[in-house]
Please model this.
Amino acid sequence: MDFQIIEKEAFRIIGKGIRVTMKNGGNFRRIPQFWSECEKNGLFDKLAGLSDGEEMFGVCTDFDPQQQEFTYMIAMRKKAGMPDVPDNELTEKEIPAFTWAVFEAAGPLPHAIQQVWKKIFSEWLPVSGYEHADGPQLEVYPPGDPDASGYVSEVWIPVVRKQTAGKE
Model:
């Protein structure tokens, strides 16, 4: 799998989240439904007015391994200088500075991004020399047609180098 390792400073996002389950692949069904609901109810336009960026994020956070659940947010970068979240439907969150492993997902959504997620955890992470750091996982969606065969999105995983036995 092709990937890049990048360093990224902390930044703030604003968006709306739901709790999803990973049991029986529930997240792979519920998250695309959530995107569709948010497009129809005007959330995308609302976020665009509160953001100083064009890319949208799918943010996986607040993981509960015992319950196999996490919070999934649809978000955009928060506009600089905006004091408070102007709507109680929305949540503001800081994405901390991390070292990120960045993977491209080429092709129509949601299939392309779901395939990359599966490969990261089943193929790349076990042999990469990195381990998952405790932090959010991001899907990064630039402007464009997400149904197009040439659309390219990204998955960002926070990582740290694996410690080898006997080395400091």
Observations:
- The mean pLDDT is 93.
- The helical segments are 26-40, 43-50, 111-127.
- Residues 131 and 159 are 6 Å apart (CA to CA).
